[in-house]
Amino acid sequence: xxxxxxxxxxxxxxxxxxxxxxxxxxxxxxxxxxxxxxxxxxxxxxxxxxxxxxxxxxxxxxxxxxxxxxxxxxxxxxxxxxxxxxxxxxxxxxxxxxxxxxxxxxxxxxx
Length: 111
Prior knowledge:
With 111 residues, this protein is α+β, with helices and mostly antiparallel strands. The protein is built from six helices and four strands; from the N terminus they run ββααβαααβα. Strand 1 and strand 2 form a beta hairpin. It is globular, with a radius of gyration of 13 Å.
């Protein structure tokens, strides 16, 4: 499961979870059906952070925890994703998460 933070056209941040990240972003962009209500009115412009775990329960926990953070904390995580578990969410450090760079995904979807 992928946990992601999108930057929207109004500089807001949207956090979500997906089994297929490319499909989910295309949904958010309205390319295919199924995007979130929020991203219909706040068009995504880039993927700012992306993590992967095989543990769906851990993915849901991480998504929920990120959503509870203040915007300033989310911006700090985007700048330094390694801080998410040490500074913000140490309780989730026991799960196996991999941080994935966003350049390739942004280049393939946000051309």
